[in-house]
Amino acid sequence: MPLLLTPGPLTTSPAVKRTMLIDHGTWDDEYKALTETVRQELLSVAQAPAADYTTILMQGSGTFAVEAALGTAVPQDGVLLIAMNGAYGRRMGQIADYYNIVHVDLEFAEDEPVTREKVLTVLDDHPEVTHFATVHCETTTGILNPIDAIIPAVHARGVVTIVDAMSSFGGVPIDTAALGLDYLISSSNKCIQGVPGFGFIIANRTALARTEGNARSLSLDLYDQNQSFDQQHGKWRFTSPTHVLYAFHQALQELAAEGGVPARFARYTRSEQQLRQGMLALGYAPVIAEADQSPIITSFKYPSAAFDFHAFYAYLKDRGFIIYPGKVSTIDSFRIGNIGEVYTGDIQQLLRWIKTYSTVRVQSGRKID
Question: Do residues 300 and 279 lie in contact, with contact meaning Cβ atoms separated by under 8 Å?
């Protein structure tokens, strides 16, 4: 089986895979109880007290959850400020366009982090802004935006805060309550190390209570979805991804057994540092400065104009490693992820193969099969 060095879906543990071999119904009390357990465990991971926050599970990919959050949180007369430095921030702008949400876009270069100073300046210039959204780890490049500095300052102004933590939640510590976050969004197939099938939103109960009737979509109505969970003790409104939920519950147990988010963050960080240093030694320059780099996924520039990514990809795939093409709009690049059931020994083996590939290519120019 190949190792997925991608930002999700990712390589899962054997136990997570085995959990999906049993069929489950959605109508019994056991399944509803499991749903409630997962909701509460996610609040613990998010450092969000149950008195103030609720977890809303939403069928579909992570983008479904982002769309549900924006489409429910922002009322018809709301104004959304989006700080963006990559494809997923820009996708928020696309969603806002579909929903006819008035939005102000604060754009940064893809290799530049979002800054508190520029966000506050735009808020000064646009007092009409009611909601603020940004991406924590922008997987276009792997850059980590400093939400610890930004969100409290925005929250202090009475602006509703929304963070897409799709590829960071569970792998990078986030203290939701301390930040003053109103909506934190992620999905089942990222750093918790489950499989694709649902997204989830950690929502401040007070902020959510003000959204009744806001949603422009029936199936993506966060308010109604939460009402169903709360009032019917874990009942999903529509058909739920049963196997995925059981797998996700197993993944949550494995996160706890590893030592929680701090331990997983440390493991991912070790792998990223090993990868970064090893690739630098082989002549592959990272796109993002080390100070702004997340431990989730790392982008590397092509080493030369003649670099053939497809041949490089096929070579690594044949040897058991799946990497990602680049997504940076201005730089030819590729990406290598560090999350999932990936350890430093795996990174070491990957680097050996890349060294072999690169050495033979440079010395002889011949194709390696």
Answer: yes
Per-residue pLDDT of 31-70, as tens digits, reads 999 999 999 999 999 999 999 999 999 999 999 999 999 9
Global pTM exceeds 0.85: yes
CA-to-CA dists, residue 119 to 36, 75, 125, 128, 134, angstroms: 37, 21, 10, 14, 10
d(CA 46, CA 266): 17
Cβ 38 vs Cβ 252: under 8 Å: yes
Alpha-carbon distance of 136 to 148, in angstroms, equals 10
Strand 321-322 relative to strand 3-4, pairing: parallel
At 336, which helix (H) or strand (E)? strand 333-337
Q: Is the dihedral of CA 310, 311, 315, 318 positive or negative?
A: positive
In this structure, the number of other CB atoms found within 10 A of the CB of residue 11 comes to 20
| CA separation, residue 156 to residues 19, 53, 83, 127 (Å) | 44, 18, 17, 14
User: Mind listing the pLDDT tens digit for each residue in 308-344?
Assistant: 999 999 999 999 999 999 888 788 999 999 999 999 9
DSSP-derived pairing of the beta strands 297-301 and 333-337: antiparallel
